[in-house]
């Protein structure tokens, strides 16, 4: 582009180009740590050790006693995760609980109790309790996207039932959704900007939310309107390197999580099929024991052992379905939400570049034109600052969530194998007590 007219705004500030290889990995312990030449998990999560090592330690340096197999359970109780939100003092607490089924003439739906406790001056009372259904949460998220377009809005759980779930009113499905809605509100509550949004205040306090829903676009902020009505006629020449790196990282991250999600679902499906076989397998030994008097006790022991293994496997499958898969899906949706914010940022930058180039070509020097450009530049800078701040917060939350998720998965698997080991060891004395037949 040729030289700009007098009074043209200064170039956009940047925190410096960052390549994809410099972006923090989702399992990294800190965004400030130096990363290697490739996206690899943090060393404190992957520490190759041989079984014979005697100086094993957890990621936080806590020594592990390997002398007893039974001591390997309850890893979460022995691991101190750094889950504090940088020492922030919370003055707003929101919980979602008490789901209730409502059967009406036209529809059947579930509502959830949303309880708020706060000391903020923006609230008239210190405590509120309202009931909300899924579409109310969806309304809130849409309003946050409209009024806070420069920020990353946490995703909602998928509206439609998940694979393998037939009854969306089943206790398991409702509880899974309740947990996801609770996390959604807690994400907003912990955000330094979104938690002060007027629509969020209305959602938490209004007894009748329908009246506010009818207002439509009336409560949109000026920033929301300016971004919402940006036309698609502007074409971005190129993203700044640091935002291009974020886009590439999100593509890779969502692809990897999608692969893990598909494989995990197949594993759960195969576990359930194996569980069906086990439930048929165990009773066979019991019926056999009825025919063999001398072998009845050990055969009954094998039957009971298989039954205990069935129970352990069922608990493991439930944990993966209720705890592991929802986190994967949330972060797949989270990455898509971040991509949408990135596209909005690109639109505003494209508009800014187009206006700046038009002024340079026309060589206009009227005060009105540079002022208009400076407003557009301010929107770009606002997007850049908010997007980078939310990306850093997202990375921190993701690090904590995935550490908890993987440690929880390890703990559940250890408990499963310990239960199976205990079950099989219990029948050895029954076999040893029997005299050898000649």
Task: Report what the structure shows.
It is a single chain. This protein has 438 residues and is mainly alpha-helical. It contains ten helices and three strands; from the N terminus they run αβββααααααααα. Strands 1-2-3 form a three-stranded antiparallel sheet. Strand 1 (92-103) and strand 2 form a beta hairpin. Helix 7 runs antiparallel to helix 8 (296-362). The N and C termini lie far apart (99 Å).
Name the features:
elongated, three-stranded antiparallel sheet, disordered N terminus, mainly alpha, single chain, 10 helices
Strand content: 5-15%
Let me know the average pLDDT: 78
Question: Could you give the count of β-strands?
Answer: 3
Basic shape = elongated
Uncertain spans, ≥5 residues at pLDDT below 50?
1-21, 23-87, 217-231
Strand order of the largest sheet: 1-2-3
Global structural class: mainly alpha
How many helices in DSSP terms? 10
Question: What topology does this entry show?
Answer:
Blueprint: H1 75-78, E1 92-103, E2 108-118, E3 127-133, H2 134-147, H3 171-189, H4 198-205, H5 210-213, H6 222-228, H7 241-291, H8 296-362, H9 368-426, H10 428-433
Antiparallel strand pairs: 1-2, 2-3
């Amino acid at each position: 582009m040729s030289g700009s007219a007098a009074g043209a705004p200064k170039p956009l500030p940047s925190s410096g180009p960052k390549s994809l290889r410099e972006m923090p990995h989702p399992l990294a312990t800190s965004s400030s740590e130096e990363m290697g030449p490739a996206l690899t998990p943090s060393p404190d999560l992957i520490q190759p050790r041989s079984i014979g090592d005697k100086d094993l330690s957890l990621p936080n340096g806590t020594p592990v006693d390997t002398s007893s197999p039974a001591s390997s359970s309850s890893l979460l109780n022995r691991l101190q995760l750094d889950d504090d939100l940088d020492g922030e003092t919370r003055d707003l607490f929101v919980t979602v609980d008490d789901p209730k089924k409502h059967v009406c003439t036209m529809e059947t739906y579930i509502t959830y109790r949303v309880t708020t406790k706060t000391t903020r001056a923006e609230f008239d009372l210190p405590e509120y309790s309202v009931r909300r259904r899924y579409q109310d949460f969806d309304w809130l998220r849409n309003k946050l996207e409209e009024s806070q377009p420069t920020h990353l809005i946490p995703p909602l759980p998928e509206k439609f039932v998940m694979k393998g779930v037939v009854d969306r009113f089943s206790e398991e499905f409702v509880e899974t959704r309740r947990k996801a809605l609770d996390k959604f509100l807690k994400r907003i509550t912990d955000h330094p900007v979104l938690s002060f949004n007027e629509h969020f205040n209305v959602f938490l306090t209004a007894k009748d939310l329908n009246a506010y829903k009818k207002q439509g676009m009336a409560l949109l902020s000026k920033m929301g309107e300016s971004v919402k009505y940006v036309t698609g006629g502007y074409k971005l020449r190129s993203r700044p390197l640091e935002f291009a790196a974020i886009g590439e990282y999100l593509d890779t991250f969502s692809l990897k999580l999608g692969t893990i999600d598909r494989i995990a679902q197949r594993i759960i499906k195969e576990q359930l099929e194996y569980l069906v076989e086990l439930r048929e397998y165990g009773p066979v030994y019991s019926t056999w024991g009825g025919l063999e008097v001398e072998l009845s006790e050990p055969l009954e022991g094998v039957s009971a052992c298989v039954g205990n293994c069935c129970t352990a496997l069922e608990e493991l499958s439930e944990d993966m379905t209720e705890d592991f898969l929802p986190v994967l899906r949330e972060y797949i949706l989270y990455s898509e939400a971040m991509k949408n914010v990135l596209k909005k940022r690109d639109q505003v930058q494209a508009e800014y570049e187009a206006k700046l180039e038009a002024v340079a070509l026309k060589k206009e020097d009227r005060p009105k034109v540079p002022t208009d450009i400076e407003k557009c530049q301010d929107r770009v800078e606002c997007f850049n600052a908010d997007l980078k701040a939310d990306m850093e917060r997202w990375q921190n939350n993701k690090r904590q969530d995935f550490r908890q998720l993987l440690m929880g998965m390890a703990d559940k698997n250890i408990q499963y194998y310990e239960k199976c080991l205990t079950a099989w060891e219990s029948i050895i004395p029954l076999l040893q007590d029997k005299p050898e037949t000649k």
